[in-house]
Amino acid sequence: SFTFSSWQCFRALCCKGPPPPRPEYDLVCIGLTGSGKTSLLSQLCSESAENIVSTTGFSIKAVPFQNAILNVKELGGADNIRKYWSRYYQGSQGVIFVLDSASSEDDLETARNELHSALQHPQLCTLPFLILANHQDKPAARSVQEV
């Protein structure tokens, strides 16, 4: 019986071509400044998490998985940038919302409002959402239930 890599070799040698490409999915990653969006994506891409600075504007990372590639558009979370988030939603197939579970009550309320706004946006409301309560390792972190 063929293993998957044997099949790839057979296909490359006999069928004169590489295996079919992995499907790609376009995601948008949003959250307030300091929530950990850039650190999360660096970790998923096996990049160094040292010297990370806040994203101004947006950045795009291709996150490789065995069966798919996620093209993640990370949008800066500063107050003056959040009002432009919706301009970058088009074509998204999923949403990652990152929040700082150890943030102040005010910041948590702002994050809640931004999440509700995203959940109701016409280009996002039918998409899958991953809500990531980041910074669980901090002493002030709230539990998932508290968040």
TrEMBL record:
Record flagged with keyword Lyase: no
One Pfam assignment: Arf
Keywords recorded for this protein, A-Z: GTP-binding, Magnesium, Metal-binding, Nucleotide-binding
Keyword Lipoprotein among UniProt keywords: no
Residues noted as binding Mg(2+) in the record, renumbered to the chain: 38, 55
GO MF annotations in UniProt: GTP binding; GTPase activity; metal ion binding
Entry binding sites for GTP: 31-38, 77, 134-137
Family note: Belongs to the small GTPase superfamily. Arf family.
Protein's name according to its UniProt entry: ADP-ribosylation factor-like protein 15
